[in-house]
Structure formats: C-alpha cells, structure tokens
Amino acid sequence: LSLPDALPIYAVLREPMLSAWADARRRLQVIVSPPVEPVLRQLCPTAEVVVCATNPYAETRGHRANFPEDVFRRVAAFEPDLLVAAAFQWTNLERALARRFPGLFRIGFTGHLLEEEMHQYDAGLGPLDFNRQVVAAENEPEIVKNQRMAEAVLGQPLERTRPRLIATAQQLAQGRQICGAHGLEPGSFWLVDCGAAPVYYYQLKGW
C-alpha cells in the first residue's frame, strides 16, 4: 500500500480500510512519509511500515524519480502480490514501484497524476497503468473512496464505519497537560485541524 500523504489526518481517514484488511488477516506493508509513520503504527500495529524519506509529491513536481533504494529492497523482501495506490492523485512513487515490480497486480482510483505532472513523463517511468481502477470522484469524501478501495481489494462489501484513532493513556495525559497550560477545560473548546497551510486551503476570513 502506497500512502504518500504528508499529513497524518489522511492516514486516520483510511483507518476503516486498514482495519478491514487487518481483520481479513491480509499481510500489509505500507509505504509512508516520516510525519505519518507514528500515526500509522498506532492505527495498524500489524502492518509492516516502510518510511520513504523522499517526498513523493515533491519528486512528482520536480519530474525526478530519486527514491531511496531501501524502499525498493523492503518491498522486494516483503514479496507482495498486489500494489495499491491509496491516493486519488498518483505520484512518481507509484510509477517507480510499478516499473520496478512489473508483475504486481496494480489497483488505484480513477484519479490522475498530480496536475503539474499530467502531461510530463520525463522522469523516465512512463504512464502508470492499473490492472483495476476503483471509480471515484475527486470531491467525494475520503471515507467513501477508501471504503470502495477496501471492498475492491477484499472482493466483498463492507459496512461503513467512521474512522477512529484511540489515544493511549500517555497521549491523554500529555493532552491534559497541554490544555491545562493554556487554561482549556474539557468540554469548553473545539480543536480544528486545518492542515499545514491554513491560509492556502481556507481563507482566514472564514473563521
């Protein structure tokens, strides 16, 4: 499973999909970015986690394909029979994996390469061809898209559940300490995760 997102929230939104695969006792290897690694390990302790230190999105925009060789060695050692591109917008990482392991059955969404990359294949990887594509619209909720992907991989319908991340006792204690330092009492405030660039994604006048 290639999960190139840099924001941990996208891993949380894929929790039902990860849990469904774990419940089905499927072997799972997940390639993630460094910021996502701790959250993914907490979400799916049974998964083998491979950290890709190179940002796949930056690599796509730069039209390069310089990913750590250790990523490919770990994938080869895992001996997968399926490559799943989890993101709606594909990156050069999935293209590199498909080229390095041409015998893998490849599943992805009916999405597209990043906008900057759509008409440029000068990374020497060629287009990304899937054996099967899961129909989805870009503006559909992530939990809907992820459920369809989970069903495509398992070959059976699944009950829709809400994503969940269960905090550990240590995390809860740390949260109480941080909130207390800011004078925040339980039930008296909201927390909003608006991404790494709130001015870009959401106009401040909207708050």
Secondary structure: elements and pairs:
Layout: H1 8-13, H2 15-23, E1 29-32, H3 37-43, E2 48-51, H4 56-61, H5 69-78, E3 82-84, E4 89-90, H6 92-100, E5 105-109, E6 112-113, E7 132-134, H7 142-154, H8 169-181, H9 198-201
Helix pairs in contact: 2-7
Mind explaining what this structure looks like?
By secondary structure, this protein is α/β, with parallel strands linked by helices. Helix content is 37%, strand content 11%. It has 9 helices and 7 strands; from the N terminus they run ααβαβααββαβββααα. A 3-stranded parallel beta sheet has the order 3-5-7, with helices on both faces. It is globular and about 55 Å long. The mean pLDDT is 85.
**Termini separation:** 36 Å
How helix-rich are the residues, as a percent range? 25-40%
How many strands, which pairing sense, and closed or not: the largest β-sheet?
Answer: 3 strands, parallel
CA radius of gyration is 18 Å
Structural class: alpha/beta
The number of helices is 9
